[in-house]
Structure formats: C-alpha cells, structure tokens
C-alpha cells in the first residue's frame, strides 16, 4: 500500500508548513546537542582560580610534568566537569522519560522522590557499608540504583492503583510525601554516622560534583551506558504512550513492557547520577522544558537533545557554583535549586 | 470472518493486584466480516468501551477469546494486530504539545522497527491520511490549538495512517456539536465507501449509528440483548427497554436513513 502516493501529498504547499523528514531532524538535533555538550566540557575547565589556556593544555610537545595547564585541566578540573556532564545528561533524560511515562510534564527524578530514594541507598552503603563500600568500586552506584528502584516501585504502585494516570495534584503530593519520608530516613542514617562522615555526606546531599578523581565516574559509567542505550530505543513508544495507554496499545505498543523498561532505565540513570553528585534537583524539569521549546515535543528529538543540553546545563551551573563567590565552592544543588525552583513555580502558574 | 469474538467475559480489577470485580461483559459473542459497519449501542456502563478494547486486543478478556482471521489475539504481537486493527479512543489529551503532523505520523508506529525512521513513503501516508480527513492544512499546527471536531478528525487520520482494515471508534462524536457530528459521520461513510475500511463504533447517538452502521449490537448490563441489521434492531420497543424512553423511529427521506426521535421518558 506504500506504492505511488499522490505526488502532491509529498510536497504540500508552503503554507501548510512542510515538516522536514524526522530522520534529518533527529540527526541535526543530535549533532547540535552533542556539539554543545562537547564544547561545554572543553571550555568549562578553563575557568577557575587560575585561568589556563586551552592550547597549552593540549600542547603535547611539552612534557606532562612541566605542563601546569594540562595538569590543572585534566586532573583538577576535567573530572568535575565530566561529572557535571554525565549527571546532567542522566537527570535530564530520566526527567523526559518519567514525564512521558506519567503523562505529566512536571514529573522528574527529583520531584517524584526518586533521587531521594537513590540518595538513601547510597547513604546506607556509605555510612554502614564500611568495607563493602570500599571493597567493590561499583557498590555505591548499585546501592543508589536499588534505592531509586525502591522509590520508583512506590510511584509505580500508585500509578497502577490509579489506572487513570497521574493528575498533577497526586503527582506533586506523592512526590512531596515520598521526599519527606525519605529525607527522614536519610537524617536517621546520618544521625548514626560519625561526625566527619556526616559532614561529608551533608555536602553530597546538597548536590555536589567535587568528585576529585575519575573513579566515581568510571564506577557509574556502565549503568549510564545501559540506561542511555534504552533511552535511545524508547522515544517512538514514549511519543504514543504520552497520548494514553489505550492509544499506545492501539498503535501497537506493548505498553507494560515499555513502561517497565522505561522505569528501569530511568532508575538506572537516576541511581548513577545520584551516586556521583548527590540528589541534584530540577535538572530533569528545567532542561526537558527548554528543549521542548527549542525542538518541539517529538521524543526522538527531545531525548537526544536532553542528553546533550542536560550535560551543558549542569556544566554551566557547576561553573557558576565554583566561580560566583570564589574561592568558596557552593554545592551545585543550591545553584540548580535557585534556578529550577522559580522555574518550576512558573510552570505551575502557567499550567493552572 | 475477520474477527470472531466468542463468549467474552470481562471484569476490571479495582486495583492492579486485586482479583477481578463484577463482570462488565457477560458472555458476549460476535462476528465481524471485513468491511463491516457495526454499531454498539447501550446505556452508560453497559460495557461498550470495554467491548471495543477487547476487540482491539488492548484488553485481554477474563475468559473467552477474540480471534483475528482464526488466530487468537493473545497469540499475535501488538504490532501485528495494530497493522490490521486501529482504535480511536474517546478522548485524546496528549501530555505534550505535539503538532498535528507528529500525531498523524504516530500511526506509522506498528509499521516501523525500533530504530527505524519514517521513510518518505511513511510521511506521504501520514499526509494522505490528513488529506482524507480534511485536516492537511493543520499539519504544522499544535494539536492543542484545534477545535474538538478538528482534533477528532486528526486522531482519525492518525488511525488511518496505521493502514488498518478495521477502525474501532469509541463514541467518536460524544463531545462534538451537530455540525462536527455530521462531518464525522460523513467522513466515516466515505472511508468505508472509498477504501472499504470496516467500522465498529460505540455511540449514544442513535441517528449517527443509523446513518453509518448496517448492523447493530445492543448491550445492556454487559449482555447482548439484540443483534442484527440496523432496521431490525432499531425499533421503538428495543429503544424503550434499553434507554427507558418512548421514541419515534421512521425512515427519513432527506437524510436517507432511519431517524430516532425521543418523545418522552417511559414511565
């Protein structure tokens, strides 16, 4: 039946607004998103207490031992910038997935309490794990993922119990409740931790990307790669799922399978992100919204764009957090909350 | 027989994990030939929507079976079913601001692999579906900015892009004004006439059912109380027992089909 479509329908008049084929748009948007993310990772390390030059940092003719710029770039600053990029990508794309799944643009790992679940998981291992936490390098990301899965299970049960989907009210109330419940548990864990440990984790709980080495990134990377792979497989199903379960099933989507896969991958991404930088808020709300303003609602564009712009956004926020009142280094979670909080309120006002 | 449904029982579970509650459908059987025009009538809560979902394979029956060309729907993948049967649910409220064209293109879902991107042929099919429903001029607009009638036509276009041979519509005119109601009815008749697309629609609009459908199934408390040719089923007695109203039923020459005029509530 695909043979000889009417020639006129291929090229409608300009006034009908010809939409370019998705393949070329997907490619263009993905390339742009990647370029922006890459550029932010390359430029952000140049700023800081001592300014360095990009050309000297990449000047391989100088021996490593004497190339101060390269040392500052690759050892002091790049791990943190990469952490921001990975966490930003993960949280922004997880936000997109949660929003489509729950059919609500105000859903995100942070507002749903998924980040808090991940934080609790990580906290338990960091505080009580002792030998466990240091024995295997991927223990913290895994515990963080399990915490995220636990919180997702609560959200999932709520969604299943109310099979008409989530209203904004229920969503926000569930998120607030889950967040305060999990915060109480986190405080309880902290209460049992010793003083220095408690101070360290407090900073991490505020959202902190000062990772000091590549090790936490490497530990979280496998989870991020798996999540990202699933994210790139999901978009067309997410598009239809956002119309409603019946619409999706009628279009041929295996609704239950896609939902499970999406919840799983978004939990993986959230767990990995939180294990690196703590529960950094609002990235999963702000970035998808800005991305939709740029590229529209098609998830095949929104997902890759959120991966790229999420990275750039958090790299920028982190740059602000470590330069705005230098030499004091703010936890980046404070910056994202100061940007994201008012943004979230504005969205609430607009949607009301 | 394109679709044959045998002894369908269905009960919703009040919670996803709890046992099924009171049956919504009781022992419903029906056959659909390709190119059928079937109307499902019945009072609110009689199980019309549930029956449509079972026929589309969106829901699985609690007991009984639905077969497509003799093969049980439960044995066929969702994508394969969706290439044969398209469904238009009653309400469409996208969570995001899709454009009309994006929405039409979603009809291509069952024809594409996971990482496959729409070819020019797919784009052409979506454009053609919009043209067939008279909504091509809205292609670049946001779905949310259209009127109810326009939205419904776009959703039908999206189902058409699925290139299914059977279209299931759940109360397609429920929230539309009389102008749009006539427009949708005319569109459905044209789709059947020009493309041989089979239609199954649930509706409360008896006149619309009479104008589009050649056979009717009457549901009451989840049971089939009458089934057959429209002229045989749509009688004052049946309408009285189904809806509790006295109605005048006669052939309208100008409209070209039976018309039902509710006269008064039955005592």
Give the topology, please.
The complex is a heterodimer of chains A (352) and B (267).
Chain A: H1 7-10, H2 22-43, H3 54-57, H4 68-101, H5 109-112, H6 114-129, H7 131-135, H8 139-161, H9 168-192, H10 195-205, H11 215-233, H12 235-241, H13 245-250, H14 255-277, H15 283-295, H16 299-323, H17 332-351
Helix pairs in contact in A: 2-16, 4-11, 4-14, 4-15, 4-16, 6-8, 6-9, 6-14, 8-11, 8-14, 11-14, 12-16, 15-16, 16-17
Chain B: E1 3-11, E2 23-32, E3 37-41, H1 48-56, E4 63-68, E5 71-72, H2 78-84, E6 85-88, H3 100-105, H4 120-132, H5 148-160, E7 166-170, H6 178-195, E8 198-202, H7 206-212, E9 215-220, E10 223-229, H8 230-233, H9 236-243, E11 245-252, E12 257-265
Parallel strand pairs in B: 3-8, 3-9, 6-7, 7-8
Antiparallel strand pairs in B: 1-2, 1-4, 4-5, 9-10, 11-12
Helix pairs in contact in B: 4-5, 5-6
Structural notes for this entry:
The complex is a heterodimer of chains A (352) and B (267). Chain A is 74% helix and 0% strand. Chain A is mainly alpha-helical and 352 residues long. Chain A has one domain (66-351): ABC transporter involved in vitamin B12 uptake, BtuC, CATH 1.10.3470.10. In chain A, helix 4 (68-101) runs parallel beside helix 11 (215-233) and helix 4 (68-101) packs across helix 16. Chain A starts with 6 loop residues before the first helix and ends with a helix. Residues 1-17 of chain A have low confidence and may be disordered. Chain B is an alpha/beta fold and 267 residues long. Chain B has one domain: P-loop containing nucleotide triphosphate hydrolases (Rossmann fold, 3-Layer(aba) Sandwich). Chain B contains nine helices and twelve strands. A six-stranded mixed sheet of chain B has the order 6-7-8-3-9-10, sandwiched between helices. In chain B, strands 2-1-4-5 form a four-stranded antiparallel sheet, with helices on one face. Classes of the chains: A mainly alpha (352), B alpha/beta (267). At the A-B interface, helix 2, helix 8, helix 12 and helix 13 of A face helix 2, strand 6, helix 3 and helix 4 of B.
